[in-house]
TrEMBL record:
Record protein name field: Mobilization protein
Domain of life: Bacteria
Alphabetized UniProt keyword annotations: Membrane, Transmembrane, Transmembrane helix
Species per Swiss-Prot/TrEMBL record: Bacteroides oleiciplenus
Residues passing through the membrane, by range: 9-30, 42-68
Length: 235
């Protein structure tokens, strides 16, 4: 688009320069050869500019209206295999004047499916990490319960965490800092805030974290210290 604009600027600049050059020559001719005054030369200059400009516009109109259609018809008859550039259809409008978006529902559904697939992949990674990280410290039934809570955690809000009634029991080998690190690792994958993650693990590991307030858990989610479960940005 910008290149075409510059092309037009160059073409019209050459055209105007040519008209001005011819008009200047006519003015000089009127003054020097015809021995007329400066005013007459100026009048001749203006008249020539107007005549040449009008001639150009007339010539362009003749080409656009008469010559180009004739050439196009001739080319079509001689070379029928050449197809003309298709016309761009205008965007459809709704009866009430609102602009309709072609295939909106299809694109929306595709986008939603993509989001769902990405979220399903994140959940799969988190569950795999959970099983691998905690298999030594939870019974099978407790681990299954924890995985169910994690599925719930992905989409639940902070207020909905109250639905978690039965805490998960963990081996005494794991300390509070390990559970906080675990909570941060999975909460980070789900894009949860610190308070959401702290509230969740407070409910899930209620027995082990009974001495810790939610505000304390939030502050220590990434605390450094001797631990088994390390902080992981990516699972």
């Amino acid at each position: 688009m910008a290149a075409r604009k510059y092309d037009y600027i160059i073409i019209y600049s050459i055209l105007f320069a040519s008209i001005l050059s011819i008009a200047v020559l006519v003015r000089l001719l009127v003054i020097s050869e015809l021995q007329m005054d400066e005013f007459s030369g100026l009048v001749a200059f203006v008249i020539v500019c107007l005549l040449l400009g009008a001639a150009y516009l007339s010539f362009q109109s003749i080409i656009d209206v008469w010559l180009l259609p004739v050439i196009e018809r001739t080319v079509r008859k001689k070379y029928p295999q050449i197809e003309c550039e298709p016309e761009v259809e205008p965007i459809g409008s709704m009866p009430n004047g609102e602009i309709s978006v072609p295939n909106y529902d299809e694109y929306k559904q595709t986008a939603q499916q993509k989001i769902q697939q990405e979220q399903a992949k994140v959940l799969e990674n988190v569950l795999t990490y959970t099983v691998q990280e905690l298999a030594l410290y939870l019974t099978e039934s407790e681990l299954q319960q924890l995985c169910e809570y994690i599925r719930f955690f992905q989409y639940a809000t902070e207020n909905e965490y109250k639905q978690i009634k039965i805490p998960v029991a963990v081996d005494a080998t794991l300390k509070s800092i390990d559970l906080m690190h675990f909570g941060w690792n999975i909460g980070n994958q789900f894009k949860k805030t610190g308070i959401e993650t702290a509230t969740f693990i407070k409910r899930v590991f209620a027995e082990r974290l009974k001495e810790s307030e939610i505000s304390t858990i939030k502050r220590k989610l990434r605390a450094e210290g001797t631990c088994i479960i390390k902080i992981k940005e990516k699972l």
